[in-house]
């Protein structure tokens, strides 16, 4: 496994660790085999695992003009369209997630603040959008 060289009181020692199981280490010192039992177990270093918790934040609807009969869902920030969850002609309710926009390596769910019918989808999956660009129109 590992080889070490030690010099103690002007004497040289070559140490080779042969095996390591639990608290017992088999080693050779200058060709002579020894079995060494440790008082405490040698702690193994574990690589930490990054676990991301699911988001507990609620989906925030995008503000639209309530007095207009046609509602336009616009991009709140520049990004890339990851998925579109509606089709033209779909009837949606308040809070329905219309699409997912990736911006700055974060996924942003774009939800509707108004009920209605999807009349136009002006974007496609993989498309890059600018801030304030009209993505979906509702009636």
From TrEMBL:
Residues 59-139 form the Lipoyl-binding domain. The keyword Iron-sulfur does not apply. Coiled coil: none annotated. Pfam families: Biotin_lipoyl. Transmembrane segments: none annotated. Keywords: Biotin. PANTHER family: OXALOACETATE DECARBOXYLASE ALPHA CHAIN. This is Biotin-dependent enzyme. It comes from Mariniflexile fucanivorans.
């Amino acid at each position: 496994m590992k080889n070490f060289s030690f010099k103690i009181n002007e004497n040289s020692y070559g140490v080779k660790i042969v095996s390591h199981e639990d608290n017992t280490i088999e080693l050779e010192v200058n060709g002579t085999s020894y079995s060494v039992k440790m008082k405490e177990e040698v702690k193994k270093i574990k690589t930490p695992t990054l676990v991301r918790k699911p988001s507990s934040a609620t989906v925030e609807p995008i503000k639209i003009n309530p007095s207009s009969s046609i509602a336009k869902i616009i991009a709140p920030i520049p990004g890339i369209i990851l998925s579109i969850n509606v089709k033209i002609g779909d009837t949606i309710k308040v809070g329905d997630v219309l699409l997912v926009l990736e911006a700055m390596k974060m996924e942003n769910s774009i939800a509707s603040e108004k009920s209605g019918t999807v009349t136009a989808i002006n974007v496609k999956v993989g498309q890059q959008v600018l801030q304030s660009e009209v993505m979906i129109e509702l009636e």
